Amino acid sequence: MTDKNNVRTTANTDMEFRILEAAKDVFMEKGFAETSMGDIAARVGINRPSLHYYFRTKDRIFQAAFGMIIQKIVPKVEEFITAKDVPISERVASLVDVYYEIFKNNPTLPLFIVREINRDVNYIIDTIHNTPMRMTLMKIVTSLRTEMAEGKLNTVPLPMLFYTFYGAMTFPFLTKDLAERLLAEEGSFNELLEQWKPYIIRQMDNLLRVK
Hints:
Largest sheet: none
Structural class: mainly alpha
Number of strands: 0
Shape: globular
Helix content: over 70%
Strand content: under 5%
């Protein structure tokens, strides 16, 4: 006999996933401020009362959708922290692969994040604090400082690491349309990304590896 509660729970979970996927796309297209609950409901194909049944406010949808992306990053960042015996170049390479996959599936995400930081940086920080990424960021800062203090990594100001890694990671996606027009003869965007990956690894390795 079919368990009606299990069927109902599965249906709710499927609908929540559909809502979050649709919301993620609308948020990245229009930005948080310009996105309405009606926009999200229309994208899913449901009415607003049905949307409110699952998520009562736009903030909750945004935090859940953002958290869904964060959840894909956290395990690899945790691996970066704990794999202290693995060469830094290999750890960085693994992290680059994760970001590449996420950005390829969500190519407007880097631009969306930049826009939202400029719109209301405190809101973005509060959103991150409501996800597991907050604890992960604290762990990675502590881990890097510990490895530097123990002489396992070169001592580098953390802002320099942040600028180097995320600048190198996001700039190709921020300038994708420009690169495809100006550098079309150099290969497809994905080919350019693969050519760029060793440079990201090399930059981070040069900063962190003890000479």
